[in-house]
């Protein structure tokens, strides 16, 4: 309808492209049942008109429906992408924003309860509550919490002691090289080291360690793991866990996995 009613000389293909771009700007997380809430606001703002329609199906029954059409004001907004369409946000948007705000506040309070310095976390991660730095902090502290709750207090204590030794090594190395401690190894990377316990310079480099003292760090970790009795500690995926075996060649499963999304491939 928007294409056929265009009255200012624009080609259909141009309007079709503009509609395609407009659809692409719609957040992918919104469901059709949510998008329909915007219709009322579009009608109030004059971008869409609405009219009740009816059709007689039989002598005793009329079929009634509500018809929506793009108004001239709406058509101009479709044609001119520089025009801003300002609407009052639907209630579900406000509720979602409030839920995200509460979730973010909860995550930041949780990090503070673990003693994490929020000023050392990138600003973009503080705004969303997600990111690689926050993930490393949370992984370490959640593992400590898991170990304590599952009766593996000795391993949890060993991890904490290893982290303390990493901090001491960083401070000593920073003094030797006359550099800021954070430039040697950041706090989140040290927690990642205490979590996964790499023992080679190559493995430490993969975690983000870039100091020229990396060989000394690897030796210190090896010694600490042995001293603290962490070399025999089980990880979440220890030898008693069932192995995941990949097929040696392509195969077709007998049935779809629960929750799968079937997407048709384009030629």
* Overall shape: elongated
Task: Provide the helix percentage.
Answer: 40-55%
Class by SSE composition: mainly alpha
Termini separation comes to 29 Å
User: What count of helical segments does DSSP give?
Assistant: 12
Give me the count of strands. 2
**Strands of the largest sheet, in order across it?**
1-2
Low-confidence stretches: 1-9, 234-241
DSSP strand (E) fraction? 5-15%
Largest sheet data: 2 strands, antiparallel
- The radius of gyration over CA amounts to 29 Å
Q: Could you state the order of secondary-structure elements as H and E?
A: HHHEEHHHHHHHHH
Short description:
The protein is built from twelve helices and two strands; from the N terminus they run H-H-H-E-E-H-H-H-H-H-H-H-H-H. The protein is mainly α.
Any overview of this molecule?
The protein has 267 residues and is mainly alpha-helical. Helix content is 52%, strand content 7%. The protein has helices at 12-24, 32-35, 37-44, 72-79, 91-113, 123-128, 132-149, 153-177, 181-184, 187-196, 201-206, 214-227, and strands at residues 48-56, 62-70. A two-stranded antiparallel sheet has the order 1-2. Strand 1 and strand 2 (62-70) form a beta hairpin. Helix 7 (132-149) crosses helix 10. The protein is elongated, with a radius of gyration of 29 Å. Mean pLDDT is 84; it is low at 1-9 and 234-241.
């Amino acid at each position: 309808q928007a294409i056929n009613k265009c009255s200012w000389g624009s080609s259909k293909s141009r309007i079709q492209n503009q509609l395609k771009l407009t659809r692409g700007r719609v957040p992918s997380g919104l469901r059709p049942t949510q998008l329909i809430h915007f219709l009322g606001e579009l009608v109030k703002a004059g971008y869409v008109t609405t009219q009740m329609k009816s059709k007689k199906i039989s002598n005793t029954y009329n079929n009634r429906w509500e018809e929506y059409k793009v108004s001239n004001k709406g058509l101009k907004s479709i044609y001119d992408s520089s025009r801003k369409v300002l609407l009052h946000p639907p209630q579900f948007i406000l509720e979602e924003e409030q839920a995200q705000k509460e979730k973010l506040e909860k995550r930041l309070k949780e990090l503070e309860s673990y003693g994490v310095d929020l000023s050392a976390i990138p600003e973009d991660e503080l705004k969303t509550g997600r990111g690689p730095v926050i993930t490393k902090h949370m992984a370490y502290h959640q593992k400590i919490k898991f170990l304590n709750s599952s009766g593996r207090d000795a391993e949890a204590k060993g991890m904490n002691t290893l982290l303390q030794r990493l901090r001491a090594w960083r401070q000593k190395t920073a003094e030797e090289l006359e550099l800021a401690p954070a430039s040697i190894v950041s706090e989140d990377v040290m927690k990642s080291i205490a979590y996964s316990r790499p023992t080679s310079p190559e493995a430490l480099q993969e975690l983000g360690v870039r100091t020229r003292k990396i060989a000394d760090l690897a030796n210190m970790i090896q010694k600490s793991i042995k001293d603290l009795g962490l070399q025999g500690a089980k990880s979440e995926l220890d030898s008693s866990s069932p192995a995941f075996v990949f097929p040696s060649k392509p195969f077709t499963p007998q049935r779809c996995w629960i929750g799968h999304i079937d997407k048709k491939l384009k030629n």
